[in-house]
Prior knowledge:
Elements lengths: L2 H11 L1 H4 L1 H12 L7 H13 L3 H13 L4 H17 L3 H11 L7 H14 L3 H12 L7 H13 L2
Helix pairs in contact: 1-3, 3-4, 4-5, 4-6, 5-6, 6-7, 6-8, 7-8, 8-9, 9-10
Amino acid sequence: MDDWQERVDAVWAAADDLGDDEVIRRIDALAAERADDDPVALFERAGARDSAGLEDAAEPLYRAALARGLTGSLRVQAHIQLASTIRNLGRPLEAIGVLDAVEAEAGELRDAVVAFRALARVDAGDARRAASEALTALAPHLARYRVSLAAYAAELGASA
């Protein structure tokens, strides 16, 4: 990990003590060390605003980070965070589409994709399908009741 990312991670580790405005200030200062179109810097700037509840300011930064070629796990994270942001802005169907587009490449973040899509489905009025998908993702993690939970989840999905 490079020094820049370590400094970004340090800001996030201290975020609860710093407050929203200071996190944004520090992340912006670190982002300014990189090119204006650096996708990772744009992603971090978006996250700082998103974390502060400034979804209107975060959305274009997430979109810019993705358009400028954000890759790997950060690309998946950006999709998840963008979807959460646009759901909070009242566009749950668009959020579902953003998450659907990245699910195949989500890897270890697949359960997070499913969880945030469930939130968007609830907002879109499809709570039964949301519960079905969330419980289907949860079932493999259970030491007991895995089979019965998976069956109930399938039953919910069939009636959604």
